Amino acid sequence: MEDSQSVASLMDSTSSKIQQLQKAFAELESHRAITLNWKWKQLEEHFHGLEKSLKRRFTELEDQERDFETKIVKSKEMLERREKAVVAKEQASLERLQEKRDAAVSAITYALGKHRNSFPDEAVVIDGEDHGGVSVMEDKPPDAMVSEKAVKELTKPSNGENVVVKLYPDLVTLCQKMDTEGLHKFISDNRKNLAVMREEIPVALKAANDPASLVLDSLSGFYNGEMPTSDAKKDANLLGLRRTCIMLMECLSILLANLDEDLIPVIISEDVKERARVIAEEWKPKLDELDVDASSGNSLEAHAFLQLLATFGINSDFDQDNLSKLIPMVSRRRQTADLCRSLGLSDKMPGVIDVLVRNGRHIDAVNLASAFELTEQFSPVALLNSYLAEASKVSSPARPGSTSPGQVCFLCHILQ
């Protein structure tokens, strides 16, 4: 900047120098006999041209200097933003690492408690060297008591790199991003291949940082508060969303069933259970509005509620008798038997089957009696004959999805 100022001051003094030169030239002319006016005009034009050229060049240099300074400022700002982004990523990585460490410590503590309860006085040889024929025995440190498999499972990267599904890799990406809305849409768009997705979703859930929270978040749209219950049963989109919610909870149960027992409390933590309890308490009153007979044993609302309790292990917080009263509302669902076992309702099945028989649901009663080995108490042949007798008294056509009397006769013939 100082050089520029000095150049500018020199250029400003050009005019005064020209004037001085003009006076000197005039004095010289006075001593000559021949006038030099025509020569002076040429010199004056030449000097003014030089002055304009210098000023133009100086202006260009100033513009270039300003542009250069602007670029420097922008570069500094960009570097600062990048530095902040790098710091933020490092902080996020440290936080994720700390979460994994906390999860590992939790699993270690849990495993240590189980180990101590099973082997309270156990001592472990940690030094195999010979010390006069006596092995050195010391208590094994807590960190060594958890299985290496559990620790590796907990501390493995959750970025989805090691999670592979064959036909629908997008499931891994959606779970990795914890994108519940995208997950619902993807399942809906590929509903024709639900059987395949049902196999791949439990694997894809491993890519989620918190698979239990991902599934709980997916339940947010199960009940549309602005839609009456009667209209909800006619809304195809809502019915599809509810089926997806149930399937996601079932897939989480499959994932948990294939994990080491030490890992389950890490995924289904107390905070997760508390969230599930809150959702269950919100859903429970809505079941009172349902018509048991109208559901025909195929209620999505009752199924979702029971699946929520089973998946997140909170069924003990609810009265077992009340839960058993919901089974007739889901008796036609293919998952009913497994769901009852998960909820610890196996001993309630005789009462449930009695309710089904009294309500003319003999086919559902036969299915449950067979699933829980209660056929001696509830003979399938007797139940089907009873159903046939009741059906013959009814002249109205059978409801859609019900079993015809001809089918019942065929079943009776097989079972006899």
TrEMBL record:
<keyword id="KW-0287">Flowering</keyword>
<keyword id="KW-0221">Differentiation</keyword>
<keyword id="KW-0175">Coiled coil</keyword>
<dbReference type="GO" id="GO:0009908">
    <property type="term" value="P:flower development"/>
</dbReference>
<comment type="similarity">
    <text>Belongs to the Frigida family.</text>
</comment>
<dbReference type="InterPro" id="IPR012474">
    <property type="entry name" value="Frigida"/>
</dbReference>
<feature type="coiled-coil region">
    <location>
        <begin position="11"/>
        <end position="107"/>
    </location>
</feature>
<dbReference type="Pfam" id="PF07899">
    <property type="entry name" value="Frigida"/>
</dbReference>
<dbReference type="GO" id="GO:0030154">
    <property type="term" value="P:cell differentiation"/>
</dbReference>
<keyword id="KW-0217">Developmental protein</keyword>
<protein>
    <recommendedName>
        <fullName>FRIGIDA-like protein</fullName>
    </recommendedName>
</protein>
